[in-house]
Amino acid sequence: MKNMKQYIRLSLFIIGIATIFACKKDLSTLDLNKIEGVTVDTTGMGVLNVFQFDHLVVKPKLTTNLTDAEVMYEWRINIDPSDTTSQLLATTKDLDAEIRLRPNDFGKYYQLRLIATDRATQLQYISSWNVNVRNSIGEGLVIAETTADGSASDISHIMNSMVTPDYNAESIKRNVYSAINGSTIPGLISQFRYTNIFGVTSLLAITNNSIAKINTIDYTLGGFNEELFSNHDYAFKPEGLYGIQQGDIYMENGKFIFTYLGANRLFGVPFDTKFTVPAKIALNRNSDASIVINFYDEVKGAFVYLPSLNFGDKNMYAYPAGAGVFNAGNLPGRTNLAAGYGVDNEFVHVLKNKTTGKTELYTFKAGETDADWNIIISSPKAFFDLSNAPGINEATHFVIMDNQKVLYYATATMVYAVLFSTATPTYEERYTLPAGETITTLQVYQQSDYPYSETYLPGNNNQLIMSTYGTEGKVYILPLKNLGVGNIDLPAVKTYAGFGKITAIATQK
Tens digit of pLDDT for each residue in 79-108? Predict the structure, then answer.
């Protein structure tokens, strides 16, 4: 028993000695190999804030005995707040780099690291900061442009005082969509529409065979094709996007779907109708209108009207045939060129006569209701033969104004105005492009909440937005003057260059 106790004491002594030596640091070489480290003073540098697509500038206060030539610098940031994968921003001592990352969610920061490496010893000294990326894309112009091979679309963005409230600077953010999503949108975007989808501000974008939802808070893809519909089991062939107060319209294959996306996440089923609805319709965007939609049915050769989408009579009716300014119920052989809502609540249509080749302008009076709330349909008001308008047969774009009786049309290189406030229209040349450029889009500038807001920018309804293409894509902002005459204020025209071929432009909040 005594020998056993001695054995235990000896074993504990040996274990204790081994533990002491195992925990002891090796200090034998520290005086012989002194390392000159790098320290970074981060005082006052807590969370770094930067706007998306702006430059993050960091000039760290470094203390080191090494020369710049003896140190290799790397600035890296993770590609997502929850991801350890990082991207290289710079290899310089100071950082000045554009941040093309999506805005982070509240409380979830990106991690910025400065890695300073001693070239001789390969020892690294690492400092890190939290980075808050803010959304810098506000109200302005959304630009759809083609990729270099012309097979896909990217999205860029313009902000300035002409299209952005309370903003006196200029901002051009290029290739926003691909920077955030890592890919482009297949096909060529033909139209945008800004709307609210169940509380999320969004852009809807259509191509000839797809529709995409883009969340404007960060320009991430929010849905594609079937993901945006409660039931869609046929080929996608989008034709148009429209909106009224408390309602969104998606047009496809001669039909349309009406859904209030403010209270729904998905489009529903097509509207039940016996008529063929064209991509170009005249639309009264007020929900209390007595006639909300007016269009020309190319198959039946007659004009059609729809009293209501939200309340009341939701059936479509062909206009009765009969004599008058024109026979709205029997007008065969036309093709839709343009339609819109004009001055004095007129429905306005531009048609091409397939027999004579003439371009024609038709207007309808606004619909009304009588004292008993019975609908008085909008009746034919005026007809204009536009065949004498210069270049009208080559026109590719039309713009119908709702604050003056002016119709703008564009050929490949010219913009003209049709003044139709009198019985005989007059025609005026308004803008000629520089040599080598061709017009790709033309529209009136209207803010995305028009006509439901109380205040608007001075340019709302008072400037044209045009895009052209030659060796590069350009955006023109063409301010208007002399209401009723359609003059363009030439000295005030603003141009932005450096895009691909532009296929669509929209406004967003």
Answer: 889 888 999 999 999 999 999 898 887 778
Residue 273 has pLDDT above 70, yes or no: yes
Tell the residue number behind the tokens 């955006």, with chain if given: 475
CB 273 within 8 A of CB 245: no
Q: CB neighbours of 425 closer than 8 A, spacing ≥ 6?
A: 361, 384, 386, 389, 418, 419
How many Å separate Cα 396 from the centre of its chain? Answer: 23
Q: Where are the beta strands (DSSP E) in 289-433?
A: 293-297, 302-306, 317-318, 334-341, 347-353, 359-364, 368-369, 375-376, 380-385, 397-400, 406-410, 414-419, 426-432
Segment (H or E) for 196: strand 191-197
Q: With residue 56 as reference, give the H or E element that holds it.
A: strand 55-58
- Cα separation of 186 and 214, whole Å? 14
- Cα–Cα distance, 39 to 42 (Å, whole number): 9
Q: Is 363 exposed, middle or buried (0-12, 13-18, 19+ CB in 10 A)?
A: buried
User: Does residue 41 register a pLDDT over 70?
Assistant: no
